[in-house]
Design brief:
It comes from Cryobacterium algoritolerans. The protein is an alpha/beta fold. It has 16 helices and 13 strands.
Length: 481
Amino acid sequence: MGDKTWFARAVGLVIAAAASGAAATLWIAIAADPQASGLATSKGLVFGFVPVVYDMNAPAPRVILAAIALAVLCAAGVALMESRVSNRSRRSSNPRVTPLSPKVVMAPTRGIFAGPVTVTVLIPAHNEEASLPVTLSSLLAQSHRPERVIVVADNCTDTTVAVARQFGVEVFESVRNTTKKAGALNQALKDFLPGQGDNDIVMVMDADTSLDDGFLEHAVSRFTNDRALMAVGGLFYGEEGFGILGQLQRNEYVRYSREIARRRGRVFVLTGTASMFRPAALRAVAENRGVTIPGAHGDVYDTAALTEDNELTLALKSLGGLMTSPSQCTVVTELMPTFGSLWQQRLRWQRGALENIGAYGVTPATLRYWAQQLGIGYSVIALTAFMLLMALTVAAVNNWVWFPFWQGLGAIFIAERVVSVWKGGWRARILALVLLPELLFDMFLNVVYVKGIIDITLGRQATWGHVAHSPATSDELAASQ
């Protein structure tokens, strides 16, 4: 236990050291290039009358090829590793190691009809009287309506319970819960899960989320056609509003959904905004807590995890569960209205992700997440170095020097930023084209990342935040139906 605690505390330092080592190696390789030192400026005229100073130097071809080869090798290595882990889980027939692998879960139900797929929705809610009406309206307006909807009211001091009952849905009130959302859901699942059959799907969705029409219909189709499928996660988009800060978050979410679509639905995280599970998957997690995966035995959600949704994803993957995030299953979720609330949210997300991989250690199921955190750590160093060098260059030179090679790479970078948010509309494209606001937003997230590493290393107590919502307008209610 002591070794695991030490490793969990040191996980941020391990990532930081690995990313720093990679950055230092690249720096040394570039510094060793004789063409990388000194300026060879020339002067010219643009349009025949605009004077410019430029430098045509570029890294040696061997350096460029080495950088490209390294990037391709790393990407291919991660993809191959993820593919091998997935294939190993699919082929496993060991019920003790991977009780949720397709071969194991399909064997006892082969040739047995478990009845039509039904859906029961659990909505954890803490003082969500303002946002709950939109959530329930979107849920009850689905083309495939759920058989049951249960609002899990956790220590509510407002009218959340009354609002839920006005919509005619069931209410489960937590009792003396001190472990936030995860604890409330554990109480509800212990009461509710034993009576669920193989095809009685359990959906967990946040009380500040609005389902797009067709979500349940498509997800139910997936579960009906694939008996080995253990979970379906939603893809989320940001709500409208909150000015440039809101648009920055919407751009971020559009890029994430695009990446999942390019991965053909392979899951990073079964998001808490809206995810669906087979009861067998949740039972297997509860049974293996404290045995092969972290957590208290008998709990579905690990109450020690800051990001319980990310942790549950790791648990299901560690047990061999098959899951997907189809592009047809989309939701609209809340955005943080201020930098203060965004800071608190992202610090919890980032710290939670690091703590989760620290709790699980380096395993086949977590290798992809270790690589992802290493990539984030490296990008923190790269972007910070770029911004500092740009600032020093501006302060040190009398005349601006143009570097066609690097500006060409910059143009490719900007084009990728614009294309990756194309589905977000014209506002998203313009913001990506301007570039600087998104770079500053990325720097903000980098500071959050570093703060998370410091807090984990020093063992500081993490905190949750709750965003107060304004009551839904009649237009918002109509749009959700």
